Amino acid sequence: MQGMHDFVPTTNKIEYINRILKCGFDTVDFGSFVSPKAIPQMKDTEEVLAGLDLSTTDSKLLAIVANLRGAQTAVAFEEIAYLGFPFSISETFQQRNTNSSLEQSLIRVDEIQSLCTKNDKELIVYLSMAFGNPYGDPWDVDVAANWTDRLSDEFDINCFALSDTIGSSTPETIEYMFGGIISEFKSLEIGAHLHSTPETIKEKLEAAYKAGCRRFDGAIKGLGGCPMAADELTGNMATEVMLEYFGEHDIKTNINLDAFEKAKTYAQEIF
């Protein structure tokens, strides 16, 4: 929801996420502790959290943070299991997205990871621009592997998400990146946060799955994404299309499809 111009009422956010919590997803990204001036849509994250019904779900909550201040707020909530931090392998994008260089962001990761360790949280690092960038900054499997190695070795990060920020990935580059990273870092959890046009979702999903990825981010109706994408149809991977693919290939997800349909119906009502 973060890029939507009109503010989604807090009560709608709560109802929507409560429906998602009944579906059986491993992790639910419910909000962001970021500057309300920068992202007004997320200014009610604490109110949303207070309204969530966690009594009948095994789903773990994840909150996105971009700096130490946001992390300090997030770790105070016992309900939150994961903090997500966007770390771009593109120097230019990291400066634009979090107002810090890559080396400065390493300091942030160190500070946030220390907070997570002290407060029994796990930090997930999103390696954004992993499949290319519009700035001419270098990217390939070696660049991604170098940052993965540093972040895991120096700060004990165990979960990463290779992120296609602008929808530039192809099945070939997805297979190349995931195949290389997963084979080199067998002890780490390497997830996929891919952006796509509707017609290329399944081919991208298949490439990542065949390369060994087993953690996938999605959004109902494919909403969201990055405003810098060249194609306005590029958004998050539509969860319903992903579930359709898994069903077609007899891949078990443990998702309650009836509950998911109710969440999807509500998404169609409020978005």
Give a short synopsis of this structure.
By secondary structure, this protein is an alpha/beta fold.
Description:
The structure is a single chain. By secondary structure, the chain is α/β, with parallel strands linked by helices. Helix content is 42%, strand content 17%. The chain is built from 10 helices and 9 strands. The chain has helices at residues 10-21, 45-50, 68-74, 91-98, 102-118, 141-155, 171-184, 201-210, 239-248, 257-270, and strands spanning 27-33, 60-65, 80-88, 122-128, 159-163, 189-193, 195-196, 215-216, 235-236. β1 (27-33), α2 and β2 (60-65) form a beta-alpha-beta unit. α1 (10-21) runs antiparallel to α10 (257-270) and α7 (171-184) runs parallel beside α8. The longest helix is centred in the middle third of the chain and has 17 residues, at 102-118. The mean pLDDT is 94.
